[in-house]
């Protein structure tokens, strides 16, 4: 078929294998192109599924589901997905038909029809490159020199040959392989020889130009990188002397000739991890692997069991076509899973390519050796040094790590396709393909300069994080992840080096301190804890080495969220140590942080009286702080503590005034220094106070408003804290099960995202109460007991009274009413002794209800009376109303 097929606003040419809509290329896979060509060539004819499969997948068994996937993609590309089909109709039980009118037009090509003989590479099917081929053809229509660039093994030669075939060149088209030219002086000789002309005549270049111009030739120059200067001079001279000659070059760097258009070939698209075979097979990288595996084994079909391993192989190999080919070839001696697990040293594994391939394409190491030896000495050194980065890095980072001129070396490495430049939200960044990084890391180790490069890298990241501390503290988690998250892979490797044999432990400690805001902002508590404890082990061995860092690390270790990992009791110890060092060196900020940590520990342990003393001390010291809003944080601590002591009206007044003042002068640093957004934290206790005081509807609106704000600022910790201390418990106290279930679900989801065990245990305890209310008392206790133990072990008993009330009710429902009463009596005694008076009405109400249910009228009267008295003393009108309802329900109204 030499005609172009046109239908509607679309056109397709069999040779070019590209679908155009109004002249613009439409992305479409190779199989879908084959199906479209077959159907459009026979308009109005019904083609059975088997006919299509035989045409598109000759000699291959293909399930009909695979055909349906490609038909669906084809219809989507044609906009044929809704209503009456305009192009492709499904004829039930028979197959498919192309139903649009097709116009056949003589195909336009730059040169007369004809095609050079195919070689082995041409016979390989091109996968995932249709858009590249179409784009290069479009570039050739706009300019006379297009250079395909990209890393070694990415498929530049294959794409260039596909372009040449798509343009249907005349027999006089010239294709010149420069890979075996070792001397730049021989470039002109090889060029002239390909044209059958003498190379040493006085006007050799002019003769070559005349010969090419007469043939309107397209000249393909393959593998120019090692003789790029000689090629550039020759190409520019011929372009100046001709009108119709076009050049298509492949090179790992541009020729830098006037009028050159550069097409950078990227790796093949990779699959998502953990997907089915059907989904994975949409990735060109996987398609290439499967095709080569099929050729190697004499039959291979991707299964759901193999799909994750194949996806991992393609990802580890960066979508590099050569590496994927070589990997598939290893299936002769090992299975897919074993192959995926053995790629740690890809250079040993990825050998034995096609015998007909160029020597540098027969192993992965040979390919990289070829590129490496084309670099200048400075570029070789820079490539080795930047191998210490993991993932993305910036030009500033490269300049800090490279011992020579980093900017100049990076420009050269990007031009020569050994470093990829990628746009990012925070500006342009760079990365090495993993295969290149492993190779360069070997070169760095061989040079003996690895430790020095790693030290410069960690020092750079340390300085960057120190300078950005305020920005990290103030931004949302999503913002900070987008702006600084790229540092984490390199930071982890840097810290491992610093604390390993031969590393710089003092630098590692400094980097740990600088990283604290980032670790906390992104909720990376496990690795933060590991880095802190490793640093403290080093600093505690010589306490005069860096007291400021030791103080900051102990302050972080005393934070509430660190206690989700750290053993019970150590949070207060860590805060005390931080406070002692802060007082000794005169650091008011960390004295306040230490007091805050001790206050949190006291409140969580159910010791509000001690907590109030600490809050008062904090407020007095805050008056000397350089941040005037620290006194407002102290007032919030005082107000919150009073609530737990059942002084709800006082608490509400203090918190309302604090919020009014805080809105005007709020400091962005507080959400880091004192863990949570101070507005949200104040609203948590204010909502509780309002509910206890009888303003139930207003209290729940307060929770919703605070939740909306916490979600807007994307502060996961504040969202979890709000749901755990206000949303869930208040909804349950109000017996609003639907709202409670929604809040519990949200807490579980956000706790999972924030990786916080304590709040996850809270969520399970709240859910246990809902299980009890559904009538499953045994299920309630089964879920409640282990989670209450987890909370006690971590020192979080703030809401234990509410859980104990549920536990007692569930026990009584199972006939254990005496044990339930003993449990409540112990909880009441503990609450009274520690002045956790907020829960007295709750516990006495549960005791009275259980006694009434078991016909112990005297005990019920005594408990209800005590509950009413405690509620009245606290002004807890919400409990008062519920207590009177309980009394009416139990038939005891006449006794009051």
Question: What does this protein structure show overall?
Answer:
GO terms for molecular function: ATP binding. It comes from Marinibaculum pumilum. Residues 2-100 form the OmpR/PhoB-type domain. Keywords: ATP-binding, DNA-binding, Nucleotide-binding. Pfam families: AAA_22, HTH_77, Trans_reg_C. The protein is an alpha/beta fold and 896 residues long. Among the domains are: 3-106, Orthogonal Bundle (Arc Repressor Mutant, subunit A), CATH 1.10.10; 120-264, 3-Layer(aba) Sandwich (Rossmann fold), CATH 3.40.50; 277-365; 799-896. The chain is 61% helix and 7% strand. It is built from 44 helices and 15 strands. It has a 5-stranded antiparallel beta sheet. Strands 10-11-12-9-13 form a 5-stranded parallel beta sheet, sandwiched between helices. Strand 3 (18-21) and strand 4 form a beta hairpin. Helix 26 (525-540) runs antiparallel to helix 27 (547-557), helix 35 runs antiparallel to helix 36 (716-733) and helix 37 (737-754) packs antiparallel against helix 38. The protein is elongated and about 120 Å long. The termini are far apart. 48% of the residues are buried.
């Amino acid at each position: 078929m030499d005609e172009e097929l046109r239908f509607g606003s679309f056109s397709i040419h069999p040779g070019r294998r590209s679908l155009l809509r109004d002249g613009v290329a439409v992305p479409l896979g190779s199989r879908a192109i084959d199906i479209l060509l077959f159907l459009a060539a026979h308009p109005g004819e019904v083609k059975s599924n088997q006919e299509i499969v035989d045409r598109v997948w000759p000699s291959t068994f293909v399930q009909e589901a695979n055909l349906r996937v490609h038909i669906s993609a084809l219809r989507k590309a044609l906009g044929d997905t809704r209503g009456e089909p305009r192009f492709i109709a499904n004829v039930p039980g028979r197959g498919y038909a192309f139903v649009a009118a097709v116009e056949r037009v003589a195909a336009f090509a730059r040169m007369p029809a004809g095609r050079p003989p195919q070689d082995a590479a041409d016979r390989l099917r091109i996968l995932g490159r249709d858009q590249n081929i179409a784009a290069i053809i479009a570039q050739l229509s706009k300019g006379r020199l297009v250079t395909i660039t990209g890393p070694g093994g990415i498929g530049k030669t294959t794409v260039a040959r596909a372009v040449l075939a798509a343009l249907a060149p005349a027999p006089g088209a010239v294709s010149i392989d420069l890979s075996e030219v070792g001397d730049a002086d021989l470039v002109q000789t090889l060029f002239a020889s390909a044209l059958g002309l003498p190379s040493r005549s006085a006007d050799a270049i002019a003769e070559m130009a005349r010969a090419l111009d007469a043939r309107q030739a397209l000249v393909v120059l393959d593998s120019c990188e090692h003789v790029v200067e000689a090629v550039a001079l020759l190409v520019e001279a011929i372009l100046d002397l001709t009108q119709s000659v076009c050049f298509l070059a492949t090179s790992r760097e541009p020729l830098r000739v006037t009028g050159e258009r550069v097409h950078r070939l990227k790796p093949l698209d990779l699959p998502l991890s953990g997907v089915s075979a059907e989904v994975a097979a949409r990735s060109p990288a996987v398609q290439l692997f499967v095709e080569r595996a099929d050729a190697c084994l004499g039959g291979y079909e991707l299964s759901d069991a193999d799909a994750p391993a194949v996806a991992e192989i393609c990802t580890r190999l960066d979508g590099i076509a050569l590496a994927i080919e070589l990997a598939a070839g290893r299936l002769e001696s090992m299975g897919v899973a074993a192959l995926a697990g053995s790629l740690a040293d890809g250079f040993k594994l990825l050998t034995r390519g096609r015998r007909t391939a160029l020597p540098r394409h027969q192993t992965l190491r040979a390919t990289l050796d070829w590129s490496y030896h084309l670099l200048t000495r400075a570029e070789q050194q820079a490539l080795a040094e930047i191998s210490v980065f993991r993932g993305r890095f910036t030009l500033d980072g490269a300049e800090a790590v490279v011992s020579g001129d980093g900017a100049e070396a990076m420009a050269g490495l990007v031009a020569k396709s050994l470093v990829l430049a990628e746009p990012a939200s925070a500006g342009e960044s760079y990365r090495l393909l993993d295969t290149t990084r492993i190779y360069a890391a070997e070169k760095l180790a061989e040079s003996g300069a690895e430790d020095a490069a790693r030290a410069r890298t960690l020092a750079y990241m340390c300085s960057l994080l120190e300078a950005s501390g305020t920005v990290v503290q103030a931004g949302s988690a999503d913002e900070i992840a987008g702006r600084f998250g790229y540092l984490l892979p390199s930071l982890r490797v840097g810290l491992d080096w610093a604390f390993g044999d031969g590393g710089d432990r003092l630098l590692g400690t400094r980097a740990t301190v600088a990283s604290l805001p980032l670790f906390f902002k992104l909720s990376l508590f496990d690795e933060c804890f590991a880095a802190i404890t490793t640093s403290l082990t080093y600093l505690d061995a010589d306490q005069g080495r860096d007291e400021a860092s030791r103080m900051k690390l102990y302050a972080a270790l005393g934070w509430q969220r660190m206690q989700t990992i750290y053993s019970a009791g150590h949070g207060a110890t860590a805060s005390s140590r931080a406070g002692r060092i802060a007082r000794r060196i005169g650091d008011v900020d960390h004295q306040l942080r230490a007091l805050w940590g001790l206050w949190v520990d006291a409140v969580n342990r159910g010791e509000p009286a001690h907590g109030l003393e600490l809050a008062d001390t904090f407020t007095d010291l805050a008056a000397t702080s350089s941040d005037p809003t620290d006194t407002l944080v102290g007032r919030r601590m005082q107000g919150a503590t009073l609530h737990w002591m059942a002084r709800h009206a006082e608490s509400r007044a203090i918190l309302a005034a604090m919020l009014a003042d805080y809105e005007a002068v709020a400091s962005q640093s507080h959400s880091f220094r004192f863990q949570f957004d101070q507005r949200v934290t104040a609203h948590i206790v204010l909502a509780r106070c309002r509910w206890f005081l009888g303003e139930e509807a207003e209290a729940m609106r307060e929770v919703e408003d605070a939740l909306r704000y916490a979600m807007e600022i994307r502060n996961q910790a504040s969202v979890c804290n709000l749901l755990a201390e206000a949303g869930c418990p208040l909804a349950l106290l109000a017996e609003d099960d639907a709202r409670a279930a929604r809040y519990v679900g949200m807490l579980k989801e956000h706790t999972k995202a924030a990786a916080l065990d304590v709040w996850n245990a809270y969520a399970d305890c709240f859910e246990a109460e809902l299980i009890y209310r559904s009538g499953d008392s045994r299920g309630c206790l089964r879920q409640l007991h282990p989670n209450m133990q987890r909370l006690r072990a971590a020192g979080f008993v703030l809401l234990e009274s509410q859980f104990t009330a549920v536990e007692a009710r569930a026990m009584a429902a199972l006939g254990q009413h005496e044990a339930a009463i003993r449990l409540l009596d112990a909880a009441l005694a503990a609450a009274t002794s520690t002045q956790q008076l907020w829960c007295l009405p709750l516990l006495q109400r549960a005791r009275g209800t259980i006694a009434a249910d078991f016909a112990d009228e005297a005990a019920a009267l005594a408990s209800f009376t005590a509950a009413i008295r405690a509620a009245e003393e606290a002004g807890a009108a919400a409990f008062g109303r519920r207590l009177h309802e309980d009394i009416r329900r139990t038939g005891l109204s006449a006794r009051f």
